[in-house]
Write a structure and sequence with these properties.
The chain is of the alpha/beta class. The chain has a single domain, classed as 4-Layer Sandwich (Metallo-beta-lactamase, Chain A). It contains eleven helices and 15 strands. Strands 1-2-3-4-5-6-7 form a seven-stranded mixed sheet. Helix 8 packs antiparallel against helix 9 and helix 10 packs across helix 11. The termini are far apart. The model has no long low-confidence stretch (mean pLDDT 92).
């Protein structure tokens, strides 16, 4: 489905089959000489059919259309191998480029979640897992394309829209938003969503993903924004209110974790099983594996954030991380 949302700006809804997010919001900005397409969808035929038809309806030549990827997750970057040509540019944040390139060389790297399944204790608890079946790997791009690295403050132009790159790590390393200061528009990717909170996992144990995310929210809050174009769900206006809501959500989750973790060491999976989740399942055992995976990753990020703040202690045994109160 295509919807015109602003002059020369169109929302393309790309289906995400068998995914709770249901749809990716891809945005097409019509320019004079160059168009701009933001985010792509899974590397999946269902996604490609919709994207190809949308570009045809928009009478957009792909050679005349540059592609901006907010981050390296497969629901945003998966189709890039079909859209990249020798005559257009694929633009990404510098760290996101490294993730995508390393993921092409080593699928295990792209499946950082698979490593966290072990680190969080989820696999040791008996969770079923088939390597390569997680969406981040299964629907990722399989072919190398020429990527242009973007950094903080770089400009991306499309017709009447002149964007500034804003680095917003947290949801992933290398996540970049586009800010149009004259039109007061923020293309937010998965940095700020309207009715759901972005999943904050832990990519590596040498960076505090939740701390980075909260700092990115503070950074974004300094921008004058009247319209947010997110990667999923509704386009919305009250960015400041939404940022406040998300920060409050994480403050509650941090307190929830502190209330759970005691003197006896526990894994992130054990903590996740006791945490409060806005889901309809009655017990942890009822959670589908995919939800357990995201919950354990989110728990891991919050636990490690508290370790970085010196409010919890962390230890490791056989590759599994344990957390306890000071």
């Amino acid at each position: 489905m295509i919807n015109r949302i602003l002059p020369d700006v169109y929302l393309i809804e790309i289906p995400l089959p068998k995914n709770p997010l249901r749809v990716l919001n891809s945005y097409f900005f019509r320019g004079g000489e160059r168009n701009l397409l933001i985010d792509t969808g899974f590397n999946l035929q269902d996604c490609w059919v919709v994207m190809e038809d949308a570009l045809r309806q928009l009478e957009a030549g792909i050679d005349d259309t540059d592609i901006f990827l907010t981050h390296a997750h497969s629901d945003h970057a998966g189709l890039v191998e079909y859209l990249a040509t020798p005559n257009n540019r694929v633009l990404m944040g510098e760290q996101a480029v490294l993730i995508l390139e390393m993921g092409l060389r080593d699928r295990k790297f792209l499946a950082a979640s698979a490593l966290h399944l072990h680190q969080s204790g989820l696999l040791a608890a008996g969770a079923p897992f088939t390597p390569g079946e997680e969406a981040v790997v299964k629907y990722a791009s399989n072919k190398a394309v020429r990527l242009t690295k973007l950094r903080e403050g770089d400009r991306v132009k499309a017709g009447r829209y002149d964007f500034i790159c804003v680095e917003t790590p947290g949801h992933t390393p290398g996540h970049v938003c586009l800010y149009e200061p004259n039109k007061k528009i923020l293309v937010a990717g998965d940095h700020i969503l309207d009715s759901i909170t972005p999943n904050i996992g832990l990519w590596t144990l040498n960076r505090d993903a939740l701390g980075e995310y909260l700092r990115s929210l503070d950074k974004t809050a300094e921008l004058e924004v009247e319209l947010v174009l997110p990667g999923h769900r509704n386009i919305f206006q009250n960015m400041q209110g939404r940022i406040a809501d998300i920060k409050e959500h994480h403050a509650r989750r941090i307190q929830n974790v502190l209330n759970i973790v005691g003197r006896e060491a526990m894994t992130a999976a054990q903590a996740a099983a006791q945490m409060e989740w806005d889901l309809t399942y009655k017990t942890w055992d009822d959670f589908p594996f995919n939800q357990k995976m995201h919950a354990a990753a989110e728990a891991m990020a919050h636990l490690y954030h508290l370790v970085c703040q010196k409010r919890l202690k962390m230890s490791c045994a056989e590759g599994i991380y344990y957390f306890r109160a000071l």
